[in-house]
Amino acid sequence: MKKRVQEETIIIVSVAKWIVLATIVGVIVGVSTTLFVKTLNRGAELTKEYPYYFLMIPIGLLASTIIIKYIFPQAEGHGANRVIESVHKFSGKLKPIMVPVEFLRTFITLTSGGSAGKEGPSAQIGAGLASMFADLLKFEGADRRKLVICGISGGFASVFGTPLAGAIFGIEVLFAGSILYEVLLPSFVAGIISYQVSSWLGLTYFYHPVSFVPVFSEAFFLKVVIAGVFFGLSSFLLVETLRLGNKISKSIKLPMEIKSVAAGAVLVVLTLIFSTHYLGLGLETLQSALEGKDVPWYAFIMKAIFTSITLNFGGSGGIGTPIFFVGATAGNFFSKILDVDASMLAAIGFVSLLAGAANTPIAASIMSVELFGAEVAPYAAIACVISFLITGHRSAYPSQVLAVRKSSSIDVSIGEELSKVKPDYQYRDKSLIGVVKSFWKVSGRNEGKR
Question: CA–CA separation, 207 vs 230, rounded Å?
Fold first, then answer.
C-alpha cells in the first residue's frame, strides 16, 4: 500500500510540474508567434502596395543567403526540419541565435515574394525559446527534450489556430508512424495556452466550415477514397519536387550567392508568366480554392515549383502553408473530375496533403474538425490516412524518423531518418500481374510471421 501511495504521489507531482512548465512555455510561444505573424502581415501589406514588388526576390534570396553564410553561420538550417533534427540528435538543444536569425530570414524571404510558409519558423522560434528556458532551468536529457517539444507544439498550435491539432502535430511530426505519448499532456497544455495567448493578443485565424456535405452513399464514399489516392500522389509530387530542387542546387558548382540571385531571377520570370498567385504565403488563392471559386488547374504544381526554388536556393521559411495551398488547389481541381462540391474537396485536400507530406494523419484529421466542421471530418479522416500511405516513405521533413512500414511488401529500415531510407521492394517481376501476385504472396508470408 505504501508503494502505491508513493507512486501516486510522484505521478501527481510530475503532472503538476509539467502543467506549470508547459503553461509557461505556452505563454512565451504565444507571445513570440503573435509578434512574428503580425510582423509578417505588416511586411506583406507594405510590399503589396507596389505591383512589381516581386522584382525584389533575387535581392531577398541573396540577403537571406548572406545572413546565414557570412553573418550568422552558426544558425544554419531553417524551419521545423532543423528542430526535428535537434530533438532526435541533441535532446532539443538549439542555439539561441537561431531565434532572431530565423525571424529575420523568413521576413526577408516572404516580404520580397519568396514562396514559403510561416509554420516552420514559428515552430523553430518556439522551440528555440523553449530551449533557452531549459537552459535557464538547467534541464538536460529527457526533460529538455520534452520542454522543447512543448515549444514545437505551442508554435504550431498558435500559428495554425488549431490548439488540439497543432499540439498533436508537434509530437506526431517527429516520427513517421508514431506518437510520443509521454509528451501528450504538456503538448496539449502548451498548445492550448499558446493559442489562447495569441488570440488574446489579437492574432486572427482562418476558419471555413464546409456548408455542404453530401448524404453518405457508396458512390460518394468511393469518390472520397479515389480523392485520397490523388492527394497522396499530389503529396508525393510536392515532396519529390522539393527533393529535386535540393539535388539541382547541390549539383550547380557555383557560390550560393550567385545561385540565389539566379534562382530569384527564375522566380521573377515565372511570376511574369503565371501571375503572383504563387508568391509568398498565397493566402488569396488558397481562400479562393476553399470557397469553391475557379483557380488554375495547374496551381498545385506551380506552388510546389515556386516553393522548391525558394527554399533550396537561399530562402528561408516553412513548408506548412505551401502544403495547405497545394492540397486545397489540388482538391479544387479534382472536384471537377469527380463531380463533387469544390469547396468540400478543397477542404479535404487541405488536410490530406498535410497528412501525406508531413506524415501526420492524426493531427490532420483533428484539424479537419477544428477548421472545417464535424460533418466533413469522417471523410477527411479516410482521405488523410490514404494520403499518408500513398505518399510512401518520404516526407517534406526529411529529418523525421521512420517508425512504421507503410506496406509489408516494402523492406525499409525502421528507426532511420527518412532522408536516408532506401526502400527495398520484395518483388522482382515488374509486370502488373507479377507485382500483384508477388504482393499477395509476400503479404501473406509476412502476416503469417506475426
Answer: 24
Residues 6+ apart with CB under 8 A from 426: 409, 410, 411, 438, 442
Task: State the DSSP H helix or E strand holding residue 441, giving kind and residue range, or none if neither.
Answer: helix 432-449
The model scores a pTM over 0.90: yes
Cβ within 8 Å of residue 117, ≥6 positions away: 281, 317, 318, 319, 320, 321, 322, 323
Residue 433 has pLDDT above 80, yes or no: no
The stretches of 48-160 forming alpha helices (DSSP H) are 57-66, 79-90, 98-112, 119-137, 141-160
β-strand pairing of 410-411 with 401-402: unpaired
Query: Taking 70 as the threshold, does the pLDDT of residue 166 lie above it?
Result: yes
* Residues forming CATH 1.10.3080.10 domain(s) in the chain: 2-200, 218-390
Band of residue 243 on the pLDDT scale cut at 50, 70, 90? very high
- Nine-digit cell string for 5: 501511495
pLDDT band at 450 (very low <50, low <70, confident <90, very high): very low
- CATH 1.10.3080.10 assigned to domain 2-200? The reply is yes
- The CA distance from 370 to 26, in Å, is 19
**Buried-exposed string 362-376: b where 16+ CB fall within 10 A, e elsewhere:** bbbbbbbbbbbbeeb
Q: Kindly state the cell numbers that stand for 429.
A: 517481376
Q: Which CATH architecture has domain 218-390?
A: Orthogonal Bundle (1.10)
- SS3 labels along 368-418: HHHHHCCCCHHHHHHHHHHHHHHCCCCCCCCCCEECCCCCCCEECCCCCEH
Q: What share of the chain is helix, strand, coil (3-state, %, to 5)?
A: 70, 0, 25
